């Protein structure tokens, strides 16, 4: 049945492999821009006038972490409707694995701050925006099931 409908045991891995490669592409592209685009040195506002340097107040890494954690928590609020197919399968099949995956994502959300505190401010604007779009998508797509 599964092979005749185009589903294989590796189908859930597509998202696991595609999303990080897109994220890393943006990471390297923005880091390359930070080094080669002079207007990023004076294009910010408030405390981030130079988008090529790390945030000395750690506001952007913390904001990135909070938006990621908000998305993780919102995804967990919807009982059998998950964004990621692997999470959906484990949520329906094994609540123990689903709870462990949620704890893993929470840990990743907390660890974003120490692992990214030396990243350029310009990168955080991509990441925070992507997190906010994901959060709005999750709430818009599955919000009626609350």
TrEMBL record:
Keyword presence, Membrane: yes
Annotated Membrane insertase YidC/Oxa/ALB C-terminal domain residues: 5-136
Keyword field contains Transmembrane: yes
InterPro entries given in the database record: YidC/ALB3/OXA1/COX18 (IPR001708), YidC/Oxa/ALB_C (IPR028055)
UniProt-listed Pfam families: 60KD_IMP
Family in the record: Belongs to the OXA1/ALB3/YidC (TC 2.A.9.2) family. Belongs to the OXA1/ALB3/YidC family.
Descriptive protein name: Membrane insertase YidC/Oxa/ALB C-terminal domain-containing protein
Lineage: Eukaryota, Viridiplantae, Streptophyta, Embryophyta, Tracheophyta
């Amino acid at each position: 049945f599964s092979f005749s409908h185009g589903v294989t045991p590796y189908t859930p891995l597509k998202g696991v492999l595609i999303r990080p490669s897109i994220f890393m592409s943006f990471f390297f592209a923005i880091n390359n821009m930070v080094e080669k685009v002079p207007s990023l040195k004076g294009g910010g506002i408030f405390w981030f006038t130079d988008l090529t340097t790390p945030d000395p107040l750690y506001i952007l890494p913390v904001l990135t972490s909070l938006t990621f954690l908000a998305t993780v928590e919102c995804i967990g609020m919807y009982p059998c409707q998950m964004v990621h197919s692997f999470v959906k399968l484990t949520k329906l099949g094994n609540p123990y694995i689903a709870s462990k995956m949620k704890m893993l994502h929470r840990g990743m959300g907390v660890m974003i701050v120490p692992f990214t505190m030396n990243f350029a401010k310009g990168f955080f604007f991509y990441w925070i925006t992507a997190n906010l779009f994901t959060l709005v998508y999750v709430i818009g797509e599955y919000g009626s099931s609350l």
